[in-house]
Design brief:
mainly beta, Immunoglobulin-like, Neuraminidase, eight-stranded mixed sheet, six-stranded antiparallel sheet, 100 strands, globular
Length: about 1200
Amino acid sequence: MHKFTLFSLTCILTFTLSFLPICVLGEISVDPAGVAVQAANEEVTETAFSIINNNDIDYNFNVSFNIVEFQAAENEEEERGPVRDDPGEIIREFDVPYFNTVGMAWDEENGWMWGIAWSDSRLYAMDPVNGDVVFNGACPRSTLSMFYSDGLLYIGGYNNSPNIIFRYDTQGRQVDNIRIQRNLTWSHIAGDDRYIYVVQYPNAGGQGEVYVLDREDNYQEIATIDCGEWIGDQSYGVVAIHDHRENWLWLSDRESLYQFRVDEEWNAELVRQFETVESGHTGLAHDGENLWRGIYDGETRLWYVIDDGVPEKLNVTIEPDGGAVEANGDQEIIITIAPENSDIGVYIGSLSVQFWGDGENPEITEIDFSLIVSLETPVANISGLITDAATGEPLEGAQISLDLYTYYRIADDEGGYAMNQLPRGVYNLTFTAPDYLMYMEEVDINEGEEIEVDHAFLHSEFLPDPDEIFAELALDSETELSLDITNGGNGPLTYSVSKHLLGDADSDPWTLRQSFQVGELLEDGNIYAAVYINDHFYIAGGNNNQPVIYVLNRDGELLESFDQPGESRRGIKDMTYDGELFWAADEDIVYGFSPDGEVQTSFEAPYNPTTIITWDCDRECLWLGSTTRDPLGYDRAGNQIENLEVDRSGLRIYGMSYWQEDPDDSPLYLYHRELETNRQVVHKVNIEEDDTTFVAYLDPEEGGNTQGCFITNQFDHLSWVMLGIASISSNEGGDRLNIWQVANNTGWFNIDPDEGVIDAESTLEFGITLNSTGLIPNEYSGEFVFAHDGIGGLSTIPVTLNVGDGPRQSDQRIGLRRGWNMVSAHLEPEDPDVIVITSVLVENETFQMMKNGSGQFYNPQFNFNNIPGGNVAEGYWVKMSDADELVMSGMTVDWDLPIPLLQGWQMISYYPAQPVDATIALSGLVELLLIAKDEQGRFYSPPFGFSNMGEMEPGKGYQLKLSEDAELVYRLREEEELAGLSDNSNPVHFQTPSITSRNMSLLVYTDTQARGEIGAFCGDQLVGFGLIQSGQCGVSVWGDDRSTNNPDGLLENQSYRLVLWDAENEKTVEIQDLEIILGDGLVYHTDEFTVVKINNLADVPNEFYLSSAYPNPFNMTTVIPFGLSDQVKVNIGVYDVKGRLIQTLRNEKMEAGHHKLVWEAKGFSTGIYFVRMDCSHRSFIQKAILVK
């Protein structure tokens, strides 16, 4: 059992909501997650929670508790307890032996308060129990402040040694000292086990800022807490009290104390301010209950104990406060609350449960949740029912959280939850559940109320089309694509998009990507510089006083070497490249030499030695300098450029490089060594402003001193990296070439919009822009990552861009399903023999046969082949016994390479590397194309303005029928108004028939606006089907596969019938009344095209409709079907693309039923027209294309 005597620390507890329960760690949980109880003074109240262990091993636990906030009762009737001391009130005074106390620190182990007497340079300690001075000794002269940590006193803030903090033990003996970068002159310091906090006096320029130094990172300054808005420039003391949780920072000026809340980003917010005893230049301390402050006036020898504004004692007992929870067991924890004349109000505390298993190094995990005690104040209850809005079913496991506390409930198996004995007030309830939308509701709790808050969860779904982006571009070009995201849920989908690269290219800036032991590899202990061009490293080494340039491949393998220019024994120290020549200095001469080592030019350098150099591609000049001399600008002829000089700002520079893409217009990068710490550092310079900015510390595990550097995007075409040489002794592994990430290149792919909301059951079109400007020929891969609140929460859309300036070696993978597949390639195979191409499939025993458009075939079972060799321009039928993947290697063909076509039928290849809608890809053939078909029999008929083919895809073959010879050049963008006809939505009622290598195409028109599908049957066998869209339906009718014994489809000249599935009424209807528009009717002929119209499917339509005209496009005459569900006045007119009425076809009252009218377009020119029907306060529009 453990008993806590607690004081409020006036710190508001905050927490982060998530979709996972806060108080569950792995298989350990607490129940309930948050405890609220009503109590009374002088009475004992008990409550409880349980620790649940669902693991198969025992877990140890420990429970601790502290008050983090107190809310006093609001009215006089409730204020029946003792009156609290006012914040800032002096509780006690202590006489001390010295004037002018500056620094103070609480020694929690000994229970002593320490102080520093400025004038006497004394360090002394007092026991607050009796006021006795228990230690009195000397301290460093002119020290101002201190804090206590880990059994030691940290003393600093003085003039004599402004960069040193002394460490003393509690016997007054100096242990050591710490050197830091920040000047501590006229400063106060505070600290904890991780950070040191520094605040400067007004006479040292302090503006209310608290500087944060990281003790685990060599006392580097990592943040500034700005409190100047409230305290101005009058900051004198600082103390960190982490028992106060987020409100841990306290500052003082001459007459007031300030308490601040500090968030994880080091932002400060004032919590409270109150006056106290007046004094300047005095530090602060806290003994766990109250604040302490000394006096600096030359007259007073007093220390003051000051009320920090906490409530009086509240006793809480926890039993047991430690022990073990058995495997798959639970442990009840009893909480006893015994107020003793405590202030009336609400006490908000934090219960912390730590868990660890047995073992040598057990990992400790922790669960925190709230204990809320309403002391003689009213409470209320909240309860409710949680359901799924889509189904109405209870939603077990949903989480309901309160905003003011770490307190939540989980809905039970009937969807119910209850929150009892909550303090009155206004709460925000947050409802969360995995894969459902978060919901918040404000609830006002009044005294004695029972509040019911139900919630029905909505959800959203992220449905992308397509699910990946693929494109192919020439150099310095751009393309625009689209991505549709559909929200298939019943609630809004909120999203944001970020761009990422794959692998190391997505590394954070200044991540070490690779490291080569070049010194050991080259047996050279003096490696100084490295450049990467043309897929090779060029490395400058001393080579035992015979300097050379080593040439290595990207795997670090030595290919060759050549002598360096110059005559010194060590050689060049830094090196750069201008796109044609290497440039480097040897002592006082600058050399320009080719990648094969031949010197092309040289001139006298400004310094002897000149050791750093880089090429400035913006000013077309060389920057030349040395470790301790400012860089100067020179042209390549050796002329110094006037007024082109930068200040090295005292840095000792060993490497210099130029990065044109720097986002801060500071492209000159300096690679140097920090003297005090010997760390590798990068700064950068804004040349126009001559302003130097810190960039990063580079801390490779092997360490080393800085040498030359070079920034390039050739090592990784998706990233800028810096090559940095680190000099390391041979005993420690030798010199290393480190490759550091500078930035990644995601500018080549963009998306718009990148954040927003998609309504339920809606689709949003995103614009995708791919740009190859500045890229080199290669394949670029990235991804759009959608963070959203839909099911799954995170969705990735891969992006691939192939950039080329002509054919290149590549691989293509073609997925093959069981049965017949129509395939093609967009590369010339290395060996065009189809036997070689399919050999792996034959070995896998999944390949059955292949045939081309001329009927020639390859059948390995009978060891027969008469296909004369693979032709990249042709498509092929491939039959598989099982699913597999065909992998081909070869040189790619350009997507716009012309394909010669003949009159009639042929099977062709698809060259583009990305999917393109058939109506766009084939738009260059629209005048001559009669019909196009894919492997599933879906077709595109320009003469009839119909397509259900959807997108043509890489790896697929296609059948085309032309009216005359032509040449096909694929198009990637919409250039014809025929685009948009395509709709390849899949039927849902009829099952997919057997797909063979033979079919015919049937286009069905209907007078009605029926919703549903049409199936083609031979007896009871389904031989084709299609989906009705806007009064049209494309049906692929399949012929028999002669390579099988069982009938798979229709024989030549065999009849079939049509059946309609009425989706609205969910019934099938035999179609009897047909009008033949083109072809022989319902008779099968391979590769034929038949058009029919259904008549009299229903006498009166269920709703008004205007169907697409047929034929469409048309020459002179077209038929326009429409239907009326009631007798109404109808106005039907034809409009041009500018919206002008050009002809009225009907304007009269008409009977209900199915109708059609004929538009004779004599006198009108070729173009796009719109037929509009207005009736019963509604309008319908269809597009018609006139071609003469």
